[in-house]
Amino acid sequence: MPKTAYKGLILKTVAEFNILPLTSECNGCCIFCSHKGNPPGVEVFMLPKLSPEDVMELAEFLSPDRKIIIGESATRIIEGEPFTYPDLIQVLEYIRKRFPSTPIQITTSGFSLDKGTVMKLADLKPIGINLSLNSSDIFNRHRLMPGLKEDHVIEGIEYMGLHDIPFEGSLVAVEAEDGEYIDAVETIKFLAAVGSRTIKVYIPGYTHLFPGKNGFFTVYNKILDALCVIKNSVDVPILLEPAVIEDLSPVVEGVIRGSPAWHAEIFKGDIIEYINGIRPLTRLDAFNKIKSAGSVNIKVRRGREVIDRYIKKERGEAPGIVFPLDIDPIIGEYIKKAVERNRARRPLIMTSILGEGIIKALLKRYISKGFHGDNLAIKPVENRFFGGTISCGGLLVVDDFIHALKDVDFTPDLIVIPSVPFDHSGRDLLGKFFLEIEGYTGIKVEII
Questions:
Q1: Alpha-carbon distance 261 to 181, whole Å?
Q2: CA pair distance 355, 332, nearest whole angstrom
Q3: Which terminus of the chain has a lower count of CB atoms within 10 Å, N or C?
Q4: How much is the pLDDT for 169?
């Protein structure tokens, strides 16, 4: 059973991530819910019952300079459906009064977006909705989310359009009984037609406790094949998450209609070569460089041509360019410094299955400069504890790293592991400390 979230963790969520927690209650009962598949021993937390006064007190730790997020989780707190919180509108009105111009982003299934609710939200702009639609066919949506007894999502989408409330749609791509993804494709078409700024398609996160499910790459490739049929016919950026990335070239996946990049005539498939004269090292680096600047001059490669473009925007404004998430190049510097600090000659870099291609591409530039090229090794770590389709770094546990080390055919003098599976105290989802890896191997472990 989940524990009750302690105040320090709640405050960390607010102060570090600008997330305002309201409730862990969710009325969706989604058949793909990740929490249903957690193996025994996973340490997650439920929010205690929070009064409006409690939430307003937490809001004092929000930053006015960053988007305020409601309904997302960045820690081990289970975030529920915001619209099941009975005093949501009261809290939103307080936030808007306290932070008059800070954007608010709410993630919701949309079940409660009737006309009256949407009109109240319209009075609280700037506000945006991340809409977990999952299916545009109401019968199938309720098959996927059987807990929804009342559902106003379709009229809510219409009213959001009438009141100029931007939304970004998403769906978990669940295979039909015939093995096809026709409903997912139709849902993407629907979201594109009704004005979704972007569309995120999620691979179902099934653990080994979901019987009869395929592994990640089998599911990923089937969904990717289904998306290939529609991607070029839909004028909305579509992102498949988690993504399989083998290189760091900042290729534009899509551009949001009406955004600064759209007005600058940046197109899907363009490669960002220079930003104000500086070459970006990764997709994330390119996005951050453009967003943090004001108006920018960029050079893009389009086929064999290199074209100059000027994006007119405010400093800190999102440009509207959509990339799949890769990596901050500073991670390469951290790894390099860890190796040099320990004078390691046989360093082993451990990463998730999905992170392997990214880390290889990131370190390639260092290896090419003579950075322990022949001796540096990268070891992907399988998510054995969770199993199923789970292949991401955030859900690795200490025992996964230890098991992976049994397959390493040399003795490293330094082990470098990612920080993302561990909380602020260095413990994994089972409460194990990362230095248990060092205790098991007798080899120095650095966390990056």
A1: 31
A2: 13
A3: N
A4: 98
Amino acid at the residue 398: V
pLDDT (tens digit per residue) in 220-241? 999 999 998 898 889 999 999 9
CA distance 274 to 286: 9
- What's residue 369's pLDDT? 56
- The tokens of 217 are what? 């790459």
Angle at the Cα of 180 from the Cα atoms of 176 and 186, rounded to 5 degrees:
90
Output the 3-class SS for the chain.
CCEECCHHHHHHHHHHHCECCCCCCCCCCCCCCHHHHCCCCCCCEECCCCCHHHHHHHHCCCCCCCCEEECCCCCCECCCCHHHCCCHHHHHHHHHHHCCCCCEEEEECCCCCCHHHHHHHHCCCCEEEEEECCCCCHHHHHHHCCCCCCCCHHHHHHHHHHCCCCEEEEEECCCCCCCCCHHHHHHHHHHHHCCCCCEEEECCCCCCCCCCCCCHHHHHHHHHHHHHCCHHHCCCCEEEECCCCCCCCCECCEECCCCHHHHCCCCCCCEEEEECCECCCCHHHHHHHHHHCCCEEEEEEECCEEEEEEECCCCCCCCCEECCCCCCCHHHHHHHHHHHHCCCCCEEEEEECCCHHHHHHHHHHHHCCCCCCCCCEEEEECCCCCCCCCCCHHHCCHHHHHHHHCCCCCCCCEEEECCCCCCCCCECCCCCECCHHHHHHCCCEEEC
Burial letters 80-95, b for 16+ CB under 10 A, else e: bbbbbbebbbebbebb
Work out whether strand 296-302 and strand 305-311 pair parallel, antiparallel, or are unpaired: antiparallel
Q: What pLDDT does 372 receive?
A: 53
Name every residue whose Cβ is closer than 8 Å to that of residue 300 and which is 6 or more positions away in sequence.
252, 266, 270, 271, 272, 273, 306, 307, 309
pTM of the model: 0.93
Using CB atoms within 10 Å of the CB of residue 135, give its burial: 0 to 12 exposed, 13 to 18 middle, 19+ buried: buried
Place of tokens 């070459």: 279
Q: What is the pLDDT of residue 371?
A: 57
Which residues fall within 8 angstroms of residue 319, CB to CB, at 6 or more apart? 259, 260, 261, 287, 290, 291, 296, 311, 313
**What are the residue ranges in the chain where pLDDT is below 70?**
366-374
**Alpha carbons within 13 A on the beta-carbon side of 85:** 28
